[in-house]
Amino acid sequence: MNLSSEQAAVRDVVREFAAEELRPVARECDAEQTFPEDVWDGLAELDLTGLTVPEEYGGYDADPVTYAIINEELAHGMLSVATALSVHGLATSCIDEFGSQDVRDEWLPEMVDGRPVGAFALSEPEAGSNPAEMSTVAEREGDEFVLNGKKQWITNGSRAGVYVVFAKTDRDDPGSITQFLVPADTDGVSVGKKEDKLGLRASDTTTLIFEDARIPAEYQLTEEGRGLSAAFQILTGGRIAIAAQSVGLAQAALDAAVEYAGEREQFDQPISQFQAIRHKLAEMQTQVTAGRLLTHEAAQKKADGAGMETAFLASQAKYFASEAAMDVTNEAVQIHGGYGYTTDFPVERFYRDAKILTIYEGTTEIQKKIIARHLLGDDA
Fold first, then answer.
1. 379 band by pLDDT with thresholds 50, 70 and 90
2. Which of 8, 19, 95, 148 has its CA 20 to 30 A from that of 190?
3. What radius of gyration, in Å, describes the C-alpha atoms of the chain?
């Protein structure tokens, strides 16, 4: 896909930022399971924490293709940071799309500046791929809603200053799911266990607990019962972002493999001269390119306002690119041999990080279900 001069310029700026600010700290942050807050502040200085926010609130208001490009380049540097930013973007998108004018005026200008950090609270311990089974409840009491329940797998969980939360307004009606804005300092809101994860270890992932947490009624973002449809609408863009991140991570693994294959010698020649290695690299390159093309096509359709076709293409891109990232990072480790299994080389981290791309914001199996349903024109 041909980029505009502006898109190419943005790509180059973010690529430089990723190389200079993300790559150097990625190994340490992964080992210590700490998020680089100074890097987050750097993203804010580049206006990237306002990617999905309209210009009237000081935001960048990136078009979908530019948004994908930025996610790819950040993931090439450090997937944990790219993930944190994309989830922040989910929160700002929800507030912009569904919040009242007063709510947008109150929250978006500060979120553009990076603080408060946003989080997206949909998943629950017993309701992963089927959010209709959620048990979190928001009951109306006068001019307030009272929230009770528990959310899980919350990216930015302990960092966030505001959560976009999905809850039933009628505990017995799965069709009553509604979207709410919940400030992190609300009484009755607490952050639970921080997950000790296989990969994406610099990104905090926590549980979120609501115990009689009271929020003003004006923090109801959607009409009652429109929460899930709103979530799916926003997640279409989120899945394009994850596809782009998959491409960025796969490209990083490919770059590392090419460099290593050119330097590592066996039997008196670089291993890049062996046909087995060359074929691996060719297959990896093809997967990266195909994933990037699918991602850009989905992003362009979103820019064109293609509706259901965008959701279909977003699922294709997320499915293919995330699985490609698994394949490419696996082969990168294999090309490194025993060294690829050590923390001396970044490919082992790429390999661990890649797995989550096939799980969050809709598993591979869910993406296949969406693709087949669109293809067959039914609800199969």
1. low
2. 95
3. 21
Annotated active-site residue in 72, 73, 348, 361? 361
Helices 308-336 and 347-357: angle between axes, nearest 10 degrees: 150
Six-digit token string for 8: 């190419």
> Six-digit token pair at 230?
């709103």
Q: Which residue has the tokens 């004018």?
A: 101
d(CA 217, CA 198): 39
Work out the pLDDT band at 380, boundaries 50, 70, 90: very low
Q: How far is CA 231 from CA 123, 138, 167, 239, 357, in A?
A: 11, 17, 12, 12, 19
Q: Are 133 and 174 in contact (CB under 8 A)?
A: yes
The token pair at 187 is 């009484």
- Is 361 catalytic? The answer is yes
Q: In angstroms, what CA-CA distances link 134 with 150, 218, 230?
A: 9, 23, 16
Which tokens belong to 63? Answer: 């078009």
Residue showing tokens 């797995």:
355
Q: What is the pLDDT of residues 133-188, one digit of tens each?
A: 999 999 999 999 999 999 999 999 999 999 999 999 999 999 999 999 999 999 99
Q: How many CA atoms lie within 13 A of 333 on its CB side?
A: 16
pTM of the model: 0.96
H-helix or E-strand spanning residue 363: none
Looking at the DSSP bridge assignments, the partners of residue 181 are 164
pLDDT (tens digit per residue) in 281-296:
999 999 999 999 999 9
Q: Which of 2, 64, 46 has its CA nearest to residue 243?
A: 64
